[in-house]
């Protein structure tokens, strides 16, 4: 056993741990599609039941901590808490520090990764498209403002309030995501942010950037980019937006500072 203790036949560059709500069927798929050779994805699920409320997000956060315990046994190199709304409604710093402490590896959460991505692209004014209900949208607007981003417009689909609606987010066609991006775009917006880790975006990021002439940041794209850079992997990944193809610098310190 000692001779092979450091071996990782497929994740020899990095093993990324991912904690997602149990209703999420998109995040791990998109992470796996983006992963370069030598990088593997290892997922834990946090039970996601009941209606949206502060208590729901607290339960999800607590379940995520148990996911961190499980992922630690897989010897992952970095862990991402893959829930945008959950890392906005609950204290971001506490989620990240809690996961990192329990797993003993660097940790991030989607909301913090989005902030790091927007900063890496030099963005200060952003148009936001989400699948969320109003109270999540308002929390997201305040979160972005707290981190000194001006939200030029915001549109939500009104989904996610119930367990069934959270599953339905994963069925929204990418083509509709494209139309959402066009709907929220404004001349003063420097970028489009498409929020939610259960929203399928990979197949339309390039088309949105081409047609609107500005960068696109999505929850999963930003979170995966942050995981790679935190793991010390500078690969340029083409076809999924300027963030992954141009922003190769390592991320120093906390991505949500």
TrEMBL record:
One Pfam family named in its UniProt record: Amdase
Record-linked Gene3D superfamilies: 3.40.50.12500
Source species, domain of life: Bacteria
Entry protein name: Decarboxylase
């Amino acid at each position: 056993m000692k001779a092979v203790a450091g071996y990782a036949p497929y994740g020899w560059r990095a093993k990324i741990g991912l904690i997602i709500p149990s209703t999420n069927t998109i995040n791990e798929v998109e992470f796996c599609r983006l992963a370069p050779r030598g990088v593997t994805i290892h997922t834990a699920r946090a039970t996601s039941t009941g209606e949206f409320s502060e208590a729901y997000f607290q339960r999800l956060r607590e379940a995520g901590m148990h996911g961190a315990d499980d992922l630690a046994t897989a010897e992952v190199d970095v862990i991402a808490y893959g829930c945008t709304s959950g890392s906005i409604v609950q204290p971001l710093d506490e989620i990240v520090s809690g996961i990192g402490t329990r797993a003993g590896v660097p940790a991030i959460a989607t909301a913090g990764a989005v902030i790091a991505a927007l900063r890496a692209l030099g963005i200060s004014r952003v148009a936001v498209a989400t699948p969320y209900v109003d109270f999540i949208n308002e929390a997201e607007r305040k979160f972005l403002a707290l981190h000194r981003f001006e939200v030029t417009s915001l549109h939500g689909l009104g989904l996610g309030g119930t367990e069934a609606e959270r599953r339905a987010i994963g069925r929204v066609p990418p083509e509709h995501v494209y139309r959402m991006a066009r709907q929220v775009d404004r001349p003063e917006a420097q970028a489009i942010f498409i929020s939610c880790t259960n929203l399928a975006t990979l197949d339309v990021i390039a088309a949105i950037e081409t047609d609107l002439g500005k960068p696109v940041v999505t929850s999963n794209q930003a979170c995966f980019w942050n995981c790679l850079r935190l793991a010390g992997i500078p690969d340029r990944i083409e076809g999924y937006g300027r963030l992954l193809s141009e922003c190769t610098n390592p991320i120093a310190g906390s991505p949500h500072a």
